Amino acid sequence: MPGGRPRSYDPERALDAAMTAFWTRGYEGTAMSDLTAAMGMSAPSIYAAFGDKEALFRKVVEHYMAGPGSYLGTALGQPTAAVLAQTFLHSAVEAVAGDRTPHGCLVVQSALAVNPRSAEVRDYLTGLREAGVTNLAERLRGFSGSDGLPPGADATALARLLVAIAQGLAVQAASGVPREALHTVADQMMTCWPRRTS
Known about the structure:
Order of helices and strands: HHHHHHHHHH
Low-confidence stretches: 1-6
Mean pLDDT: 91
Largest sheet: none
Helix content: 55-70%
Oligomer: single chain
């Protein structure tokens, strides 16, 4: 028995196009007409393949987190607390001020202007942010000895600080601050990072 009719679109390319649209305009600012133009698909075809706008956005965010936004995972794999922080910040700069993608962060851009009617999207993005803080804090607490934080350091507060700075870097990148200047901000932050003295 012959298989189903082959897809007339490339899912990866369609998600890339939708990602660029949402990344550029944010969730609220992206209309269905923007998505159909970017993806080269009709609205019914998008609904059939990905669901409604919110469902598509969630798939796009997953796609983003596995690609340009994967710097959290890269940071979590580093060997010391200080290298984790440094990697997280500098990788964030590369993600939000890259040459081949819109400047800013897809998640931050979308979270800054979420309509109250889109409470599910707001809660989804809040959950992602908090999960990032939790993962960073757990990893920071997991280091020991000279690889870790000094006694008394608050791993959760430091994780939230890293996320806040990364979000600020994203906003500045979207505002046109050059990548080199953002790397300088990351370097300056690292001069303040708590380290063991012995």
